[in-house]
Amino acid sequence: AQSVTQLDSQVPVFEEAPVELRCNYSSSVSVYLFWYVQYPNQGLQLLLKYLSGSTLVKGINGFEAEFNKSQTSFHLRKPSVHISDTAEYFCAVSEGSQGNLIFGKGTKLSVKP
Amino acid sequence: DTGVSQDPRHKITKRGQNVTFRCDPISEHNRLYWYRQTLGQGPEFLTYFQNEAQLEKSRLLSDRFSAERPKGSFSTLEIQRTEQGDSAMYLCASSLESVRAFFGQGTRLTVV
User: Fold this and answer.
1) Could you give the percent of chain B with pLDDT greater than 90?
2) Any chain B CB within 8 A of the CB of A50?
3) In chain B, N or C terminus with fewer CB closer than 10 Å?
4) Which residues lie below 8 Å from residue A81, measured CB to CB, with a gap of 6+?
5) How far apart are CA A102 and CA B108, in angstroms?
6) Interface check B101 vs A, CB under 8 A
7) Cα dihedral sign for B42, B43, B45, B48?
């Protein structure tokens, strides 16, 4: 069975600092990988996805992620965060042809001035 | 594109009552998913429709949970005889034969 592990439940950073949110997955087959962001009292918004091709994926709001098959990782990065990036971030893997997602437990990013 | 709409946004119910939530997907999206999200956890997949056919329902949490999508458009999720453990955010998502799912804002259920 597929699973997703987000290694950090909370990440506090100062504004304009770089950030990396870590994600590891387990799967015996090819996977599609996603990062979603959830602002308070909001639904999930897609940040970026990896389907195939280039392992470096660029998303919205200046975020990017790198797919590493050998390490089964899909870490999310941003070189300089803003206060408005404060939110919870979820890594997910697509389960088979149905397209339903298996999510990690989330990482709460807190950006301090 | 008006997005995925869920109604109600919040629901407070007494234990033992039945509740029903509605999801209106993005028009012409043929796939519709329901998820449950509890505090401190990521969303957990419950069930999936392709058009009006419910193709996966084994992940529904118990036989108190049921979902329908009668005309392949909107969907309802019903929980019978609610329990306090059912308190959670219920999320709906839709997609068009693709791997990008669009999520609604969710229905927050509180069972008292």
Assistant:
1) 75
2) no
3) N
4) A13, A15, A16, A17, A18, A19, A109, A111
5) 20
6) yes
7) negative
Residue type at B73? Answer: S
Nearest Cα of chain A lies from the Cα of B57 at a distance, in angstroms, of 12
Least Cα distance to A69 among A53, A80, A79, A55 occurs for: A55
Better-scored residue on pLDDT, A86 or A100: A86
Using the predicted structure, report yes or no on whether residue B50 has a pLDDT greater than 80. Answer: yes
Do B103 and A95 count as a contact with CB atoms less than 8 A apart? Answer: no
List the end-to-end C-alpha distance of chain B, in Å, as a whole number.
36
CA–CA dist B19, A16 (Å, integer): 45
Q: How far is A100 from chain B (nearest CA, A)?
A: 7
Among all residues of chain A, which has the CA nearest to that of B6?
A: A43
Q: Which residue of B has its CA nearest to A42?
A: B105
| A41-92 pLDDT per residue, tens | 788 999 999 988 889 999 999 999 999 999 999 999 999 999 999 999 999 9
**A107 and chain B in contact, CB less than 8 A:** no
